[in-house]
Amino acid sequence: MVMDFLRGVPIFVDVDHEQLLLLSDKLLRRSFRRGEVIFQQDEPGDQMYIVKEGQVKISIISNGGLEKDIALLHPGDCFGEMALLDGSNRSATATSLGYSEMMSLFRSDFRQFLGEHPEVAYEINCLLVKRLRSANEMVSDIVFLDVPTRVAKQLLALAETYSGDSSEAGHVVVPMGQEELARLVGASRETVSRALASYRRMGVLTTANRRIIITDLLCLKGMTDF
Description:
The protein is 44% helix and 27% strand.
């Protein structure tokens, strides 16, 4: 079961069966409750994690206590590797959304495995570059796009994630409340609520019970064309 899961993790795609089997013996299984913090921003880090079941949000918190969600992670995604690579403290907080299961790997085992498998180091570098590009795009969006456009863009990204397993009559269901969406967009809940109300009037989506149901993806995409 663990081997089947590891074969589907992108950073291990080029690792052969025998080496993957050795790695599986070093992985620890951990479970977290809804809302449980996996690690805190600025604390030392000695483990990386791979999401096996459930979802994890990655967020940054300002000195004044304001929180900004920067990523939602799903099964197969890994996180927490940056602190293992450079020995620095955690750059963000990771929190479990609902019940989740993780596979964790300690720093010594992680570094040894990277040394033995440069192909995995290459995949890690690609992952970090992807995250850097995403961060650059996030900053660009906040600077250049208004909140309704950012809401539409974020909903399109979420629709791509959830289109395979939560659709109703051809509509895409995003299991997320307005406050969570606001943290991803980087705006106040009130401003995001007004944007959603505007899209509801246009027939683009509906909202109910902490769910956003996208009924017109094509029209929503049109809101991001600029």
